[in-house]
Amino acid sequence: MTDRGRVLGIETSCDETAAAVVERGRTVVSSIVSSQVDLHARYGGVVPELAGRAHIELTLPVVTDALAGAGLDRRGRSFTDPDGPIGIDAVAATIGPGLIGALLVGVSTAKALALAWDVPFVGVNHLEGHLYAAMLEAPEAELPVVVLLASGGHTLLVALDAPGSYRVLGATVDDAAGEAFDKVARYLGLGYPGGPEIDRLAVSGDAALIRFPRASTAGVFDFSFSGLKTAVVSYVRAHPEVTNADVAASFQEAVVDVLVARTVAAAEEIGARGACLAGGVAANSLLRARFAESFAARGLVSYLPSHAMCTDNAAMIAAAGYFQLQRSGPTPLDAGAVPDLQLRGSK
Amino acid sequence: MRILAIETATIEVGVALADETGPLASVTARPGRRQAETLHPAIADACRIARITPAELDAIAVDIGPGLFTGLRVGVAAAKALAGGLGLPVVTAMSLEVLIAACPSGLGEVIPVVDMRRGEVAWLMPRSPASTVRVGTPAELAAELAELARESAAAAGNVGPVLLVGDGALRHRELLGASSAPAPVFGGIELAAPPVSSLAVLAIAAMTDGRFCDPAAVCPFYGREADARINWSSRQGRETVS
Ligand SMILES: [Zn+2]
B228 and A50: CB-CB below 8 Å? Predict the structure, then answer.
């Protein structure tokens, strides 16, 4: 690897096709995301076969765009020096968790590019990628930090001790936070994806009207949201006159309450210097406000990623790939995709 | 001219290198569902055997199907990335064409049949262009075979049996074998999957004729719509709140 440590990252685990070039795990040189959300919206969720088909069409053009953003042609060589050396030091791709037919496109593309350019391939855990998303926008952040990763598929509390070194503190025992948003939105007849719809509607609702349950879990830093979803359904059945806005506001209040309280407790437990939000739910406006407020009150820094860094992107995959390459070396070419890959903490 | 050919449309993963003199090296495996794990090491191995580095290639060839979707995507994604990353053109061929090319001439009418799972096969009737791929149930194929035998007999009197090759033919051997008179003859297991060396040889000819394209334009031939609605309704059923 050259001193520049330039990693091309590729992300195709769900419904975004993304590629990015990142230097030394910290500096985003280029980042391209092509979303398929419109393709899947009419089905109310991501359709695996459609996602796989879209990824195969989009991956190469998206990679080409990301390379161009780094001043490289699609052969990985500088536009100003087309016969010069390859300008990429490693190719990283998400190997899981995600949809198998979607993941395989990125993995196969990345391994083939690594073969073409004779550079290392790195297979990255998508969730680990999310841990670095906020840091990419705050390179000055001091570690350790606690990261709350909340998305449609996952809800995790992670201690990030050093680049490449992390521990999982807690996770959801049933639904992910984003899944709870989607299910409640669907129940209320709102659109897909449900998170933004509830966020928007909650502004005009009364968050204190309904006191939905905050589930306790056996693990102090674990989460549970399926009871909350059931409580929303039974409340609406029992009170047909209630407005969607009030339900949305009260439901959102309950979710944010639990997410922030657990993150604060985790930060205190590990002596964190700050806290990061990550994942699609990090775009929720109430969560952002409450998160910033709560940590500021305790004299801790909070890192709130931009919308582009909350949602799936490849810059975070390239960053995770860089740190993984430093710590554990390349991934063998006989690695496949792992749809149910867990986040277990680094060795 | 050196071509690297990638074959993942059916049950086999194959990589071959060829030039104008013929095949230089080939690596094949039956990896079950593990195409993504098997293909890239096979590419590296084939290059090592032929003592060619990827940077010394002139084109990439790939079987775009019909076949099994997962394998197709693994192979097509790899071909696009190799060609894109090396600045090379891509030659595409259909699995059914490769199977025909793999049959020695003089065997009579060849009908390639590829298994598409879920009770469907894809086939190509004799002397038909690749664009007329048929996708249907084995019973529909059997009916077409019977019709073909009747037509041929009426036109030429005494005709020989057709040769059925491909994994779809082998899988439905019983049904298809009884479809027509004279009964079809079946290719062996070596013609179950499209042989990758045949793909490589086809691709050399295509390159010579200028039949190649940009990697960005390459896409699998699925032969079946994505069954979005089926997936969606079963998901909804599972998620119903009780
Ligand atoms: Zn994600």
Answer: yes
pLDDT at A156 over 50: yes
pLDDT of B56 higher than 70: yes
Question: Residues 180 to 239 of B: which have CB under 8 A from any A CB?
Answer: 215-216, 219-220, 222, 226-229, 231-232, 235-236, 239
Q: How many CB atoms lie within 10 A of CB A328?
A: 12
| Ligand 1 ion: residues within 5 Å (CB) | A 151, 312
ipTM of the complex: 0.93
Chain centroid to CA A127: how far? Answer: 6
The structure tokens 């980042």 sit at A31
Which domains occur in chain A, in start order?
6-132+310-328 (3.30.420.40), 142-308 (3.30.420.40)
Q: Is A334 helix (H, G, I), strand (E, B) or coil?
A: coil
Q: How far is B34 from chain A (nearest CA, A)?
A: 7
Q: Please say whether the beta carbons of A338 and A96 come within 8 A.
A: yes
CA distance B87 to chain A (A): 6
B198: left (phi over 0), alpha (psi -120 to 50) or beta: alpha
Total residue length of chain A: 347
Residues B80, B109, single domain; the answer is no
Name, in order, each residue with C-beta under 8 angstroms of A161's C-beta and a sequence gap of 6 or more.
Answer: A143, A144, A167
- Say yes or no: A187 contacts chain B, CB-CB below 8 A: yes
Coarse DSSP helix, strand, coil percentages of chain B, rounded to the nearest 5 percent: 45, 20, 35
Per-residue pLDDT for B242 more than 60?
no
> Which range of residues forms the domain containing residue B179?
103-191
- H or E stretch including B122? strand B121-123
Q: What is the pTM of this model?
A: 0.93
DSSP string spanning A187-237?
Answer: HTT--SSHHHHHHHHHTTS-TTSS-------SSTT-B--HHHHHHHHHHHH
CA dihedral (B101, B102, B103, B109) in degrees, to 10, reads -40
How far is residue B97's CA from residue A113's CA, in Å, rounded to a whole number?
28
What is the number of structural domains in chain B?
2
Nearest to B77 among A43, A105, A336 (CB): A105
Give yes or no: residues B211 and B175 share one domain: no
Look-up of token digits 């990623």: A305
**Higher per-residue confidence, B203 vs A4:** B203
